[in-house]
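Final report, Chapter 2: Outcomes

The project's central promise was a pipeline that accepts a single protein chain and returns its three-dimensional structure in a standardized token representation, suitable for archiving and comparison. That pipeline is now operational. To close this chapter, we reproduce one record exactly as it appears in the project archive, with the input sequence first and the structure output second.
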Amino acid sequence: MLQAYKQAPWRTQVQWVGIFLLVVVALATVAGLYLFISGRSAATGRRIQNLESELVALHRQNNDLETLLGEIRSERALSERIDSMNMRPLTPNEALYLEVPGYVPAEGPSFAPPPSVIEKRTPVLLPEFTSTFLEWISSKLQEGLKSPTPTSEVLP
């Protein structure tokens, strides 16, 4: 069947403009969302880079401090400090050992007992699940026959 009337040209133009604007708004929304996600991921990546560089700096500082501690504890540094304080090493013959009554020297470290396997056997299936439905019904019927429930008659 033929169309009984034809739309006015301005209405067709308004429809085309509306469709075009709808497509433009959809594209702008997708582009904005893409830019938002890209910006956040770039900022997060930059933050990760900053934290990694800070971690490297802290590792370097830790290594420097360990090197300094090694230098301080070295034999050469200790002997220089002993000489600067007018001290000399003590020989075993010059050492004075005191016995303190009641003092018990510390024992070596106490270790945990060796690991052992404690085997606890549990059934794979519970007894409730090992019987069939017919066996269960027959056991219930047998229980009912053995101990009938007393019935009491109610009088008016």
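Archive annotation: The chain has a mean pLDDT of 85.
This record, like all others produced under the grant, will remain available to the consortium after the project formally closes.
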